[in-house]
Amino acid sequence: MALNRKTAYATPKSSVLANIQGTFSALARQSPSMRQAFALLIVVSTAAVLATGAVGPLAEETGAIAPAPVAREPMNRGDDCLSPADLREAVAEKRVVPPLSAIRAARQIVPRAEIQRASLCRHEEGLVYLLTALRRDGQFLHVMVDAQSGQVSGQW
């Protein structure tokens, strides 16, 4: 039983395929420079679509460009942190616990994490240690330790 070409392309999806095939057949009859120009057009337009972010899981589901992630407001880490000399002075005067005590407290909250950075900073409630820990899954976690008591007061 032979199928007629007209009945084979009866569905809308098949007619789109036939139009695309017809376009490429017409392109094959064109000169090589025309084919190169068409290929360049396809490459440039694909790069533009990828650069704008209009392709991806969210774009495919909603038909929209993915929104930018909401940035959390970070703790002030530069302007209100003490210098290493001021840190040593505060520890020597016993105004704050040593940094090692703050690191031990943070390790109780995030076990098996590697502490990357510790800073003594001014905060609303006084001086706090801001510690940055790297978990084994590659995620960074920030821990705030009260500098006077050595107790963890928050994490984000």
Number of domains: 2
Major sheet, described briefly? 4 strands, antiparallel
Which fold does the CATH topology of the largest domain refer to?
A: Nuclear Transport Factor 2, Chain: A
How many distinct beta strands? 4
Specify the number of helices: 6
> Looking at the chains present, what oligomeric state does this protein adopt?
single chain
CATH hierarchy, class of the largest domain: Alpha Beta
H/E element string? HHHHHHEEEE
The end-to-end span amounts to 69 Å
> What is the helical fraction, as a range of percent?
40-55%
Strand order of the largest sheet: 1-2-3-4
Please describe the structure with a list of short key phrases separated by commas or semicolons.
156 residues, Nuclear Transport Factor 2, Chain: A, 2 domains, four-stranded antiparallel beta sheet
